[in-house]
Records
---
Amino acid sequence: MDHMIRYRQTTKYQFMDKNARFAFSLFAALFFLSCETKLSSPEMPTEWSEYLGGPDRNHYSSLSQINLKNVRKLQRAWEYKSGDSGQVQCNPIIVKGILYAVTASNQVFALDAATGLEKWRYRQPGEPTSNANRGVTYWEEGNDKRILYAYNSDLWALNAETGQPIISFGNGGKVSLKVGLEPAAKEQYVISTTPGTLFEDLIVMPIRVGEGYGAAIGYVQAFNVKTGKIVWVFKTLPDPGEPGADTWPADVKAKGDVGAVNSWAGMAVDRKREMIFIPTGSAAFDFYGGDRLGANLYANCLIALNVRTGKYLWHYQFVHHDIWDKDVPAPPNLIKVKHNGTVIDAVAQVTKQGMVFLFNRDTGVPIFPIKEQSFPASKLPGERTWPTQPIPVLPAPFSRQTVTVNEISSIAGNREELISIFRKSEKGLFQPLGLTPTVVLPGADGGAEWGGAAVDPDGILYVNSNEMPWLFSLSLTPKENKESSLSMGNVLYNNTCVTCHGIELKGNPASGFPSLVNIKAKHSRKEVTRLISSGKGMMPGFSSLTSIQKQTIVDFLFHEEKTEAPNAVTGSTTIKSAGRPYQFDGYNKFLDNNGYPAISPPWGTLTAIDMNTGKHLWQKTLGELKELTAKGIPPTGTENYGGPVVTAGGLLFIAATKDGMLRAFDKRTGTLLWDTELPAAGYATPSTYQVNGKQYVVVACGGAKLGTKKGDSYVAFALK
Ligand code: HEC
């Protein structure tokens, strides 16, 4: 089967004029109709059969029934309520009139895409998980139709018609996502939050691992879709002697402290070239790199591999020796641009830093110049920041890169206090973290986030972005020895939990990290133990902790500590903190006393960039806080998660905002044409498709992030 047809077709005719395009489409349609069924389906141009709309991950649809003229008449067509509410980041796929997606607790379901009526639903036995899952992958050959999706540490194959596991796949329907990793991974936290990428009978899987010391190393693995057998592995942290190994200390793997370097955000594939494009995250521990001196390849890269063999082709590194957690957050976009009169097959990558980079797809050579710019060195003993970082000359960044004291929010009730914090803090692009707080802008979640960018066939890239400053600092790790007054539970807590829940257990609820003070009143020991093992939402699981260690942490949280710490805990080799000098003080957003960002709006934006010229076409504020508008403050924009969709109907659809709206913009001008309130905020990328002659736009509405209410719906809109 061939998923590439639609996208080859799209890219081929993008520079033709309208009439030529129409004639070409007619010709192409006739041609494809005449192909054997296996070739022409399931990739009907009217559907959305792969994550983010296709293998190019361009969030683009050639549908135009809903268009500039009639979008104001859009109405709710159906709503599917799954019953289990909570954050859903899923971008549903629609194949042959069936919509496949997941619920908040990661149950897979199939709906009639025209009515929203459920066809089947598959719930794994045992306790439900609630890790983010951005969707599923559809594969077929003849009558063999499969849904591939990740649940906990496994990749599963379900029968797409019945929703039941395909027993002949792997081990009774599943294969472990740890098989191609280092042996230590068996005890480590490994899941997948983003759908795999197909090439013929291969599925290449993104994985999520821990971010602390002793996290698994996140190699890229390709599995056979029919058998579940692993076919190739690309080592994102090279073995000694391999190219790139010299960008790490020689013993880094043997020591086992450094991990991650994983690709979690999803990939794009050029099936004609047999090339896959893989973005990677930072190395762990995220915020101190004294034990991983060097540029750290292939962390924070875009890597191009031969998708059939896993063989390395080229790479580009966006952050050298990352100590800010600047993972590449979204799949790249495979686009065509016209540059100096030549049409180039290119690959564009948006970053958390709010930049967009553009490369020749074949060679990895930048299309616009990129400068290696000098940045300040770290003052922390043991740390050695890389002297330079790459900054594209074009396009200009789509997020503010720094702020001055004049940009401290004028609507803050405690402006003077914020100014004083700001004055005392370090700031600036790629400012190394230290013991004094550093204002990190764009923040920990970008800039661009996992929603990524949409691109239309004209080479215009549309990206939503956050403008949220964070305050990061490090502190000296308390010594975990006899002289220390800390209990063993407290030491374990400091090693594994403090990053997010804080030294005093207060977390940072405003930033999305709950307080664990008196957690006893809310959860049983059993529930907390399970949470530590499996993780939840943005909290990773800690499967490498032994059950005694988990109990010791729970003892500490529940104030039920015994005076003598059991030796099994002290003797454990899984506490990866020996010699680690600094700990991270927490993911703190820099907020005012009302919980708004401490800097002046906009706090969320939507930008259109012409990738042919590198010029911005427009930028709009995205999102509105009604309570501020009511006070006469112009719309401020809000934090936003989930990406846009662009269509041949001239529209851009996006939910993503904290205000719980779905909006449609004129893609040429950024003018808002239509909006509607969703049952709960849609922190997910919409999909659009046509069934029985009618075009729909559908989005998952799980809410539950940024303090918004929970939801359990998928809602579809259409013209009446
Ligand atoms: C990378 C950040 C991170 C780390 C590290 C982390 N957590 Fe969490 N934790 C979170 C987030 C985010 C939530 C909220 C999850 C949700 O509800 O979606 C959470 C939720 C929890 C909850 C439930 C709180 C409630 O109000 O229901 C408990 C209990 C908890 N964490 C304990 C721990 C323990 C114990 C550790 C260390 C072993 C730990 N966490 C490490 C981020 C983290």
---
Amino acid sequence: MTIPMKTLTLAFGLAAALGLCSCAGTRAGETAAAEIEAIAPSGDASSGATAAGDTVEAWLIAYPFQARTDALTAEGGRGGSAYGGSEPFARRELMPELDVNFKGIAFSVEYNEDRGHASAWKDLVMSRRVNASTPAACMTCKTGDIGEVFAEKGWSYASMPLSAFTAEEHPSITCANCHDLSTGHLEPKQPGFIEALARQGIELDSVPADRMSAYVCAQCHSEYYFEPVTRRVVHPWDGGLSAAAAYAYYQGQPSGFLGDFTQPDSSAMMLKAQHPDYEEYSAGVHAAAGVACADCHMGKVDDGGVIKTSHRIASPLSNIEGTCMACHTDRDAAWLRSRVAVIQDTVFAAQRDAGQAVAAAHGAIAAAAAAGSPAARLAAARLLVREAQWYWDWVASANSMGFHAPVAALGNLAKATDLAHKARLALAGQ
Ligand code: HEC
Ligand code: HEC
Ligand code: HEC
Ligand code: HEC
């Protein structure tokens, strides 16, 4: 594989994604292995990534550009929108209704805007949500060692106390989370994700490159729950990737799982959504056009005549030229930023309305219970507030403030608001 060919296929890939070729819909990306060969340090295509060695240490030396840009994710202060970026601000400052809706779960103790990958392990160790009973399942998406831990212990690690691992040295997210270090191919390592694909009959060997690119992100940026007792990580995708499909899955009480917490005002058993970025993205126009997460979050950079992928994964708005504008060549940065702002501000307003309607429903159920409302009405209202909060949280806990799929986000928020009002109507016997 020579460098000019790599550059050619990149240009072709972008043209295809923009619908300029008859093959629109597939991002004609090459495998990471081929790209790694293209920039093999020796310049000899045949040496490839294997020559680099199959340890993270060897990779950091062999691929200094990727290592350097990856390490930069430790730095905060990058430009994002008012809703994104890398500063760990508390989400409740934007949305005080979180205090009511997450009363009864550790998210009301601490729920910050996320930071970069290099900080994931430290943020886990430092989190005020972590205590003596926190299971090691929580580290599944925070360390590059997960492949090795799973190979050694299987799922038995998941129910061990997290403190057994945080007392040891473990790296944050590393090259090994996304690459097979011996072949260079992109490859997800998260065991629950691989199992979820297998249940859908998807074998990793037969996945096309653009899909694999989304999968390496999806393995962590997606909804899951911990199976009771074993604490295995399970994705609720057997019926599809939408909020409705996941809700239906949980209503089937998989392995006896009833919910994540009881909201103490309404006494309703609630579900907590966990950043369903992949699911939300899958409902959007970019996924439908074959655009992968990396196209927007990992810009291509010309490093001395060789096109490489920036591993400084962050908000695309911090590098709009290298991301959005690589495809939308007929638009300028201001136009693209304004489209993001219109979407995010609209979704944010709807999200506030929905979140406040849910909070009001919790309060109304508490008041009705105190006033001796009939048990059947209370039960109906509790079920409705559970469902309402699910649709709200699906959007609120996902990143991007609706940009990944504006129509789906607004649809889910409309559903949340409607269900929250229906919960209050149920109290009145309506
Ligand atoms: C078409 C471009 C595009 C694609 C494709 C895309 N995103 Fe995003 N993403 C965005 C934009 C725009 C934002 C909002 C950034 C901001 O608010 O500053 C965002 C925000 C995020 C954030 C929060 C970033 C922050 O600064 O806090 C995460 C995490 C994220 N996306 C993950 C993903 C994952 C995972 C995928 C694939 C499953 C994906 N994105 C696909 C454009 C994209
Ligand atoms: C979060 C996932 C992720 C992590 C972590 C990651 N990579 Fe990558 N890497 C990618 C993606 C996505 C591509 C682009 C592949 C494509 O376009 O087909 C890529 C491409 C590459 C390439 C091919 C050349 C290029 O720049 O496009 C090399 C070399 C590479 N990564 C090295 C590394 C090294 C070294 C590390 C650890 C410091 C690392 N990667 C960590 C996802 C990741
Ligand atoms: C091993 C799990 C894992 C993988 C794989 C992974 N992420 Fe992340 N990602 C995280 C975690 C955890 C955080 C939050 C870290 C924190 O706040 O300490 C995060 C944060 C982010 C952020 C926010 C960065 C910021 O500065 O605010 C973006 C954007 C993002 N990821 C995109 C991606 C994309 C795109 C991919 C695939 C190329 C990907 N992630 C793959 C776990 C992962
Ligand atoms: C890899 C190429 C690619 C990248 C990167 C990309 N887009 Fe797109 N974008 C597309 C394609 C393809 C469509 C679908 C419309 C079409 O085919 O003309 C699209 C559609 C859109 C639309 C119209 C949405 C709708 O509902 O019809 C907007 C707005 C947009 N993109 C903004 C952005 C922004 C902002 C970014 C960066 C965060 C971005 N795009 C990154 C390829 C891309």
---
Amino acid sequence: MNKLYLWGIIFTALMLLFTYMSVAGSEGGLNDDIVNILAIAGAVALVLISVFVVIKYVRQMQTDTADGQLADESWDGIGEYLNEVPKGWAIMFLLTMVWGMWYFTVGYPVNAYSQIGEYNEDTAAHNEKFNAQYASITGERLVEMGESVFLAECKICHGIAADGIDGKAANLNVRIEANVVKHVVENGSNNSLLGSEMPMPDRNGLFNNNTGALITDAEIDAVSAYVANGMSGAGADVFAGTCAACHGEDGKGMEYVAPSVATFTPELVTNILNHGKKGVIGEMPKFDRLNAKQKEAVGAYITSLSK
Ligand code: HEC
Ligand code: HEC
């Protein structure tokens, strides 16, 4: 017998066996369950037809020879038959082109319905509703809303207690820690903390006006401790002489000049959420998916933590 038929029969038998096993093994099995019996009959038909069709075409590939008249040209021994384009194929080709034009213009016009468009419209509508509903929230309720946003979006890095999980992210219960201040004073900072690019110079641009010289290592340590202590202790004179010109006497910052290093503010947090932040601790991603009110709320929550 032809090897091909032998493989066909083996394959068919195997497929039928697997089908039988999976149906008979299932709940109800073949015991007068008409649906299962129909399913098996369908599967048997599919297997038989598939095997028959595959065998037919493989046979044809093995035995067929091409016929017809060859064109005069020959490309390195590869010729071309002068056969007519099959009618069925040509009709299908034309119909496909007509269907394609219909699809783009009438069926699913490029500028009409799309799932992404529907999603965007729904999102915009929801945001409008959200803003209308929550625009007037202030005070305690805003802080509560911020806490929910924090627990959903921020605790994975900053921790449930917002303590930064042992240095994995910034500790938000204090405005700033000494090692962060020190790093910024030594290296400068360019994180758009004011909302737009306004870098702070590094130590080579920081003069202590009391001494008239560039800030020293000892002064950096002192001023870092001073800022981290909530603007108290030694280092006050360095701050007054070097930093106050931009950050203000009380460290609360000046609009368009420098951010507050004494307290968090909702604006500062919003700027951090809009631009992300890179520093000595690591990198915080920006949060485009929060809307303005959510940013304000989480800013109010964080501001409330360090008071
Ligand atoms: C020339 C003005 C200027 C001076 C002087 C200056 N700063 Fe700044 N500082 C800035 C600006 C602007 C930023 C915001 C930079 C940014 O967007 O990343 C900043 C940011 C900071 C930050 C980062 C805050 C954060 O949340 O990461 C700290 C800390 C800081 N300054 C501390 C100091 C200290 C301490 C001094 C004095 C030794 C000082 N700065 C002097 C302008 C100044
Ligand atoms: C992928 C981790 C990650 C997530 C999520 C994250 N943060 Fe941060 N965040 C950081 C890191 C790391 C820093 C410290 C950056 C640096 O080195 O100064 C930081 C810093 C901050 C600061 C700046 C503190 C400072 O001293 O200036 C604020 C404010 C802050 N995050 C708020 C948030 C809020 C609000 C969310 C949630 C909406 C959030 N973070 C989500 C990692 C994260």
---
Amino acid sequence: MRKHQNLYMNVAKILMVSLAFAFAINVNSAAQSGDAEAGKQKSITCAACHGVDGNSPVAQFPKIAGQVPGYIAAQLANFKSGERTDPIMGAIVGALSEQDMDDLDAYYSGQQISSGSITADQEQQARAGEAVFRGGSAEFNVPACMGCHGPSGSGIPPNFPRLAGQHASYIETQLLAFKSGERNDPIMNPIAFPLSEQQIKQLALYISALH
Ligand code: HEC
Ligand code: HEC
């Protein structure tokens, strides 16, 4: 009888250890990366505004397809903590767990962003934007955008977001929000602050057509 009890105890111990091990592995992989397939299921609630694959057809809503891995999860967490405020997104993120954010990140970062285009009469404005994007502005102490966002605007994971192909009006709104301090970021606030509204418009046009 005693022998059996010992055996049961040992089996129980082994089970507990292997369960703890399996749990540790699960927790680890969850923290490192999300599950794109699970993210696809969870993205159904996002599709109305951001499009099925993250390429929102409406300029009012940002494209989130093809974003650098890690950026979407970070922004969702910012909306949830209140560090970044938006009445629509603020209401949506309340229901999302950290795992949901990682899964959504994995799904959208695996999609391809659609390219934008500008009209012939916007081209001159976009050229002026290109000069600041590539060379910055020494006069206003603005660094070249491509230093962090990449020469083609495709971003650098996980902190520097992709800009190329984004709706011009969204880029413009965000730069104005960084300029006024309404959107808070220690890096982008001082960069956007000296930019004029015209420079912001020109940058937005250039970036939207980048691919
Ligand atoms: C009712 C419309 C709506 C729905 C539904 C919606 N969003 Fe948004 N989303 C917005 C708007 C508007 C913004 C721009 C907010 C701003 O101006 O800061 C935004 C911004 C974002 C951003 C920031 C993008 C960037 O480039 O910084 C992310 C990420 C995002 N949404 C993800 C999601 C996800 C994931 C879901 C689904 C769980 C979702 N959204 C559902 C309207 C929506
Ligand atoms: C020193 C690095 C750096 C430089 C240079 C830089 N950025 Fe950024 N940019 C960032 C970081 C970091 C973020 C993400 C901020 C956050 O997490 O909210 C960002 C975010 C943005 C966003 C918001 C994107 C989105 O999807 O919401 C826009 C638009 C942007 N930058 C435009 C520019 C432009 C235009 C320039 C040049 C005038 C520029 N940036 C130069 C680091 C930089």
